[in-house]
Write a structure and sequence with these properties.
nine-stranded mixed β-sheet
Amino acid sequence: MAVDINLLRMLKHREDFRRVFGRVPGSAINPETKAILSDYKKYFDKFPDHATVDMTIFVTLFRTWHSTLTDEKRSVYELVLENAKTDVPEGVRQEIMRNVLELRMSTDLANLLLEFEEGNVSNINAEIKRIQTAFKADAGISEITFIQDDIHDLLDADEANEGLKFRLSCLNTSMRPLRDGDFGIVAGRPDKGKTTFISSEITFFAPQLPPDRNVLWLNNEGMGKRIIPRVYQSALGLTRSQLLVLKQANKLKEAYVARMGRLDRIRIVDIHGMDNFSVEQIIEANNAGVVIYDMIDNIRGFGGESRTDQRLEEMYKWGRDCAVNMSHVGIATSQISVEGDNMQFPAMSMLKDSKTGKQGACDFQIMLGSLHDPGYANVRWIGVPKNKLRLDNAPADPRAAVKFDGPRALFVDMPVMDGDINAKTE
């Protein structure tokens, strides 16, 4: 196939190899081309200063790396390598790139149909759309312009402290307000207040959003309808019994709208069993300003990686990309591993099933520390071991004790007495 020999001619240059090799679908090229391209990579690793494969050296190495080839097979390879010595004309390079993208798209579509026939694809339309979108994005890359935001506007936004402020002052003193494209992780041990923390903060975020934008809570744990009362408690700062009093007086919804602006300002959607493409459609349909991915670890569509940590890393990268591409604040919930049990300030690496993958995909990581001591049942510790939103002249990690007000579904600042972050609450 002509594209095979042209690929070998083009990719023997390190820069072209770096840009193109990852786009070449192995199943769409012949075995000889695939083997030689793999050896190109070995060559560049062996000679990091070589900008181009020296074919004389390469042929010698190739014979060593494939010493068990028959004479007939070796002759085939050497003929291919002889043809690969010629460079492709400059005008042909873009055509080769287009051919590679078309090969990848056709291969992806063929593989998708096979998976669909075997019953492994739940949403084939979304998958086809993803493949087409990827092709259009790569094929039209030359049409993408550079970012032209004015530096004055960017600095004005920082100076004005624009964005969504947290309910907790300890977070506001360490982090700038949240803006579209920011992506963070909130983690805690099981049954230690993670859902309450999210409810407490989003009911503070919602009134700060433009009137037409919403908070979207993508629920992947338990029944979403059970979260709704907690959201009302957080919004109004009331216990369940106090909510019932307002309900009986027919004033509950009125009080909630007075705080949130609309009854549907915070939207909870159960996404159990859904894949990432279905989730993206939900986000688009709800004009989200804040999206809570709870729990992002359970979203389907990331089965390409065999190792759990690699699959999770892809999930969190996807969440970050959604926040950027769909212009919202993204917050993913995660669990703190057993290493962080009974600790005030678990370390950044103490996320369940991930030492670095999840963490690398986020702008900030809020850890909810807790102790087993019954005297601290109403206390949680807020740590921010990763903070790319740090304010100037402020601590990156507040390491603060806060009150966990479970009956009212709130996390609230707690005065520190004599510098003692371990102060108990009544």
